[in-house]
């Protein structure tokens, strides 16, 4: 689950090149709709119905030139540098470029045809070059530095914006000499190309599928899952059932299919994505990325890529992040041993002579769940009809934060006919913006679940409202069939909606203070997961899709009793990925053989043989499709520590709906972007630092492991 947001205008990304001045667009907005202002109601909306890949090259040229001109005017201003004549225009610079890049970024994630892949390969290095041209401009940085040195005369928000901008420019190489800047430019452009190459290769492997022609092989698989597989085969022009090589298609087969050979075949295809020694193998690309990152870090004065990346995080250092992970790891690993013993006992009792292997884990954990809690995941699905759960998420946001949602699907452009859109207002009727949903898997859409912000809120004139989206890969079955999702999928829906709530509640003046540290980003979304299983949401929205009956209390009791079930598996598959990420990006010289490194790193921490990393390196999209989560996958655990402690505040107040707690949470943490240090903001909300024991209790681990 990733959170993707358009870069705040005025804070250029990392790249390289020459700052080019121009006073006119290279192409008229009337001739190219991608360059036009977003018009219509709701503060203007993206022209998704007009987006075509062939329109982007001219739009890129024009928007890049206009952004360069915006910064050129700031750099060349003859007046002495001030906050008003330097930082305010920087906050507003490159808005057309931001809109074009939002359109392109969404299309490459959601509708990634070969034409978009070709554009991404060609233009990614150019974007990097153009952004570095801004960062490296000595006249512009001299103005930034002058205001920074006189910052004590500014108010608190202005000081924070100036300090963060100055620090960002320095981290990105603004103080390097000309030769060093040229070298950094080369690294950044090579990385941009490599990220595009990695994404293309992985997407190709995720587009493959295993065809099943004998329905007997699917024994045990629920009818709803088989219907999805049948639809996938039909989409490919095949007869039978196609198990697509994505998590949403693979996990149900691994959980329910009694055919062990099929489970192994599906598991191997999924875990070997990007690691098959063929044209889509990603290992060489990963080695190139890791080496380039290390070289870039050294050039910028840091020992490792992780040290460089973590300067602007809550954890601050790789050691602090690793310390948290290793405090949780022993308890998680010990729990895996218990889980495997329980599964092996059931396998032995059934008479099959096997030793539990990774492709058995989900299947036998389900058998243990049934035996221990009389709980079958298939029992739950009828209560989690997608449209109802969406309505439940909106209800919770309204009750907690006063957000009101009115569906307006069909009245604004979308890029895919199954998308839905809501108009959002606050409790006083003031417009907040729009919320879009793109829920279904399809060819060309990257795997996983994520949130986008098409347009972020700001109060700086001209003020703008929010355009937020959620993107999932739920399986859409045959026409007319109900869309039933798993409990895990329902939690993912609430998780991603937490990102949208964060965006919709934001109330900041300067867009440069909107983005939060990587290890804070997942916190609001993880908190939001807690409201799915509240009795109120379940009674109103988790109703049986056939009978309309609410989920029986006895079934909810079983879910509650099993909440810490299988946490050894869940924690270990995630933590192993996070630990390997950090180990990889603390290799000082960056020279690695990804497969060999992965094996060695897992051996060092004693990875249980029955579990594979949630994301093996050859398919670790978080790390290698951009810099975004590199040396940062630990952030889910960091955020969950705050998340568990935050929900404990609601419990201490006596209700998950406690208004005073919700109001404080929204006011201090959700609405403030990065206007204050996030650790200080958390302390202001909770009265102390987060308690890691809340996380351990949530996962059912001994709290003594935190000492």
TrEMBL record:
Q: Which residues, if any, are the signal sequence?
A: 1-26
Q: Which GO terms describe its molecular function?
A: carboxypeptidase activity; metal ion binding; metalloendopeptidase activity
| UniProt cross-references to Pfam families, sorted A to Z | Peptidase_M3
Q: Some GO term, biological process aspect, for this entry: which one?
A: proteolysis
Q: Which UniProt keywords apply?
A: Hydrolase, Metal-binding, Metalloprotease, Protease, Signal, Zinc
Q: How is the cofactor bound?
A: Binds 1 zinc ion.
Gene3D superfamilies hit by this protein:
Collagenase (Catalytic Domain) (3.40.390.10), Neurolysin, domain 3 (1.10.1370.10)
Question: Is Metal-binding one of the keywords?
Answer: yes
InterPro entries membership: M3A_DCP, MetalloPept_cat_dom_sf, Neurolysin/TOP_dom2, Pept_M3A_M3B, Pept_M3A_M3B_dom
Look up the record and name the cofactor or cofactors this protein needs: Zn(2+)
This protein's record includes keyword Methyltransferase: no
Q: Which domain of life is it from?
A: Bacteria
> What cellular-component terms does GO give this entry?
cytosol
Q: Which CDD domains match?
A: M3A_DCP
Span of domain Peptidase M3A/M3B catalytic: 255-700
PANTHER family linked: DIPEPTIDYL CARBOXYPEPTIDASE
State the similarity comment. Answer: Belongs to the peptidase M3 family.
UniProt-recorded name of the protein: Peptidase M3
Which organism does this record belong to? Answer: Sphingomonas taxi
């Amino acid at each position: 689950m990733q959170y993707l947001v358009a870069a705040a205008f005025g804070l250029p990304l990392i790249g390289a090149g020459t700052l080019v001045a121009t006073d006119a667009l290279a192409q008229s907005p009337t001739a190219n709709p991608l360059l036009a202002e977003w018009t219509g109601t709701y503060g203007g909306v993206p022209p998704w119905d007009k987006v075509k890949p062939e329109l982007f090259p001219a739009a890129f040229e024009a928007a890049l030139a206009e952004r360069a001109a915006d910064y050129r005017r700031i750099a060349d201003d003859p007046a002495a540098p001030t906050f008003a004549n330097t930082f305010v225009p920087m906050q507003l610079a490159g808005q057309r470029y931001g809109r074009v890049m939002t359109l392109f970024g969404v299309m490459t994630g959601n509708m990634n045809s070969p034409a978009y892949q070709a554009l991404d390969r060609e233009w990614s290095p150019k974007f990097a070059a153009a952004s570095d041209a801004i960062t490296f401009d000595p006249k512009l940085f001299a103005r930034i530095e002058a205001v920074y040195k006189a910052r004590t005369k500014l108010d608190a928000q202005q000081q924070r914006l100036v300090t963060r901008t100055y620090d960002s420019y320095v981290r990105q190489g603004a103080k390097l000499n000309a030769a060093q800047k040229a070298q950094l430019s080369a690294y950044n452009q090579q990385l941009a190309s490599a990220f595009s190459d990695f994404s293309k290769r992985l997407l190709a492997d995720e587009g493959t599928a295993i065809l099943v022609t004998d329905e007997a092989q699917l024994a045990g698989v629920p009818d709803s899952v088989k219907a999805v597989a049948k639809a996938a085969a039909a989409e490919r022009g095949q007869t039978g059932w196609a198990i697509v090589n994505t998590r949403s298609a693979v996990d149900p087969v691994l959980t329910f299919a009694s055919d062990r050979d099929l489970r192994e075949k599906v598991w191997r295809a999924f875990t070997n994505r990007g690691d098959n020694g063929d044209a889509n193998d990603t290992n060489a690309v990963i080695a190139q990325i890791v080496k380039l990152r290390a070289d870039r870090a050294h050039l910028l004065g840091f020992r490792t890529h992780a040290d460089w990346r973590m300067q602007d995080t809550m954890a601050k250092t790789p050691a602090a992040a690793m310390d948290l992970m290793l405090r949780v790891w022993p308890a998680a690993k010990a729990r895996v041993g218990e889980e495997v013993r329980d599964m092996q006992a059931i396998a032995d009792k059934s008479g099959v002579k096997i030793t539990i292997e990774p492709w058995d884990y989900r299947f036998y954990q389900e058998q243990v769940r049934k035996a221990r809690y009389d709980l079958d995941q298939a029992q739950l699905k009828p209560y989690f009809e997608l449209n109802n759960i969406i309505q439940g998420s909106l209800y919770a946001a309204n009750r907690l934060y006063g957000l009101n949602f009115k569906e307006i699907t069909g009245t604004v452009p979308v890029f895919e006919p199954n998308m839905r859109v809501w108009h959002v207002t606050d409790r006083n009727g003031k417009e907040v913006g729009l919320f879009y949903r793109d829920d279904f898997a399809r060819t060309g859409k990257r795997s996983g679940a994520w949130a986008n912000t098409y347009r972020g809120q700001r109060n700086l004139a001209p003020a703008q409202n929010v355009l937020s989206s959620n993107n999932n890969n739920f399986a859409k079955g045959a026409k007319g069939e109900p869309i039933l999702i798993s409990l895990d999928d329902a939690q993912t829906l609430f998780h991603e909606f937490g990102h949208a709530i964060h965006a919709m509640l934001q109330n900041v003046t300067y867009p440069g203070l909107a983005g939060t540290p990587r290890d804070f980003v997942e916190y609001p979304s993880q908190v939001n997961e807690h409201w799915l299983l509240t009795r109120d949401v379940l009674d109103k929205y988790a109703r049986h899709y056939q009978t309309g009956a609410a989920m029986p209390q006895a079934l909810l009791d079983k879910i509650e009793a099993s909440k810490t079930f299988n946490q050894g598996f869940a924690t270990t598959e995630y933590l192993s990925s996070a630990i390997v990420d950090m180990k990889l990006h603390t290799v000082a010289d960056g020279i690695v053989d990804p497969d060999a490194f992965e094996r060695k790193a897992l051996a060092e921490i004693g990875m249980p043989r029955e579990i594979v990393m949630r994301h093996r390196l050859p398919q670790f999209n978080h790390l290698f499709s951009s810099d975004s989560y590199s040396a940062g996958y630990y952030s889910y655990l960091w955020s969950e520590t705050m998340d568990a402690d935050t929900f404990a505040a609601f419990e201490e107040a006596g209700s998950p709906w406690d208004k005073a707690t919700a109001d404080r949470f929204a006011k201090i943490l959700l609405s403030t972007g990065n206007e204050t240090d996030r650790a200080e903001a958390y302390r202001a909300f909770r009265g102390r630092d987060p308690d890691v024991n809340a996380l351990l209790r949530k996962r059912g681990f001994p709290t003594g492991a935190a000492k």
